[in-house]
Amino acid sequence: MADSQIRFGLIGFGAWGNFHAGAIAKTEGAELAAIAAASQASCAAAREAYPKAAVYSDYRELVRRDDIDVVDVVVPSHLHHAIASAVLAAGKHLLLEKPMALSIRECDDLIALARKYDRLIGIGHELRLSSLWTKVKDLVDGGFVGEPQYALVELSRRPYRLGSQNWRYDIGRVGNWILEEPIHFFDLVRWYFESLGEPHTIYATANSKQPDRPELQDNFSAIVHFPRGAYAVISQTLSAFEHHQTVKLTGTKGALWASWSGAMDRTPHPTFALRAFDGERVEEVLIDKITGEVYELEDQMTMLVEAIRNGRPLSCTAEDGRWSVAMCLAAQQSVETGRPALIADVLPADV
């Protein structure tokens, strides 16, 4: 397969699915062979934008094709398990948007299917491919800050888009709002603190501007406890403007301060910076590649092509995706009870 095109199927052609299609089309070694979309309007838009791709209104027709190598699934969260299961059972590799699923049981089902059919599952935590957020990881792993002790991941943004048929504002379809975007930040701090071991306890709180809709969390904060006394704070508000993310990380020797800002999360023209303190002086760290989720999406496709062709490690595995779901479920449990939650209570022994 080293010299052949990797043929992609795409399930979901909404706003973000459209970006996925563009990223696949730009990727060397990839071919967008087929698209499945839920509505006639989306099918028509897909045919117009990608006339060489077959377009289906039923994803099962796409999955049944024997010439598709990998299927990229970009649909509302409550559909992830059923569609991803069909993809894996059909013998296709899988790229699945976060969250991996809405429960640990569903995550475990997908991992078992991938093992049964010897297929890859990549989870769409694209921050792991960012030139900015990855540089933080490289500096931490290289010992620049010493042993990591504390991190703050903070996001200030305007509210989520409603999504197709307002699915993000339906808690039955979104699962909980922590699974919608804070899940990225739980994944990020677990990645940064990897050398310390797995997180064990989360305390979280949230509130809503709508008293009759407490599940729609406009403001959310959590403290995640790791071994050796390290901890991370994750905080998000949807009551602000534009899209501004910050990571501050300190250790026994130094500190890092990374920031990203844009008019919206998918802006092609963000501003971003990384400052590093080695205990004596502060320096600006050059980030020589533009960063943002539209760019990391393209890198994700390249990563997947190389994983299928050459065995390159996935940036975020199914096991990582499972952990992120577990952290979010524990955080939601803490919000509801007002008490710290043990991640072990929602995460059975590793599959």
Description of the structure:
Helices cover 33% and strands 25% of the residues. It is an alpha/beta fold. Strands 14-13-12-11-7-10-9-8-15 form a 9-stranded mixed β-sheet. The protein has a 6-stranded parallel β-sheet with strand order 3-2-1-4-5-6, sandwiched between helices. α5 runs antiparallel to α10 and α8 packs across α10 (318-337).
Main features:
Rossmann fold, 15 strands, 351 residues, single chain
Which sequence of strands runs across the widest sheet? 14-13-12-11-7-10-9-8-15
- The CATH class of the largest domain is Alpha Beta
Shape: globular
Structural class by helix and strand composition: alpha/beta
Number of helices: 10
Number of domains: 2
Mean pLDDT: 96
Number of strands: 15
Parts with pLDDT < 50 across at least 5 consecutive residues: none
Main sheet attributes: strand count, strand direction, barrel closure = 9 strands, mixed
Between the first and last Cα atoms, what is the distance in angstroms?
A: 30 Å
Q: What percent of residues adopt helix (DSSP H or I)?
A: 25-40%
Please name the CATH architecture of the largest domain: 2-Layer Sandwich
Beta-strand percent range? 25-35%
Q: What is the string of helix and strand elements?
A: EHEHEHEHEHEHEHHEEEEEEEHHE
Please describe the topology of this protein.
Layout: E1 6-11, H1 15-26, E2 30-36, H2 40-49, E3 54-56, H3 59-64, E4 70-73, H4 80-89, E5 93-97, H5 104-117, E6 121-124, H6 131-141, E7 148-157, H7 171-174, H8 182-192, E8 201-207, E9 219-225, E10 231-237, E11 243-251, E12 255-262, E13 271-277, E14 282-284, H9 293-310, H10 318-337, E15 341-342
Parallel strand pairs: 1-2, 1-4, 2-3, 4-5, 5-6, 7-10
Antiparallel strand pairs: 7-11, 8-9, 8-15, 9-10, 11-12, 12-13, 13-14
